[in-house]
Write a structure and sequence with these properties.
Elements (H helix, E strand, L loop, with lengths): L2 H22 L3 H19 L1
Protein name: Glyceraldehyde-3-phosphate dehydrogenase
């Protein structure tokens, strides 16, 4: 992955979070936090 691609992907992700906060109101940070906690619990089962 080149630096330019990484920068564009990072800006797209930040733009999505900004759009969520200002317009969409989907609650993406909360949703991602819940999914991350679920994934950690699932992975700890296999550990």
């Amino acid at each position: 992955m080149t630096n330019q691609i990484a920068l564009v992907l990072g800006l797209l992700i930040l733009g999505l979070f900004a759009a969520d906060a200002l317009v969409l109101h989907w609650g993406l940070p909360v949703l991602l936090g819940k999914e991350l906690a679920s994934m950690i619990e699932y992975l700890s089962f296999w550990h």
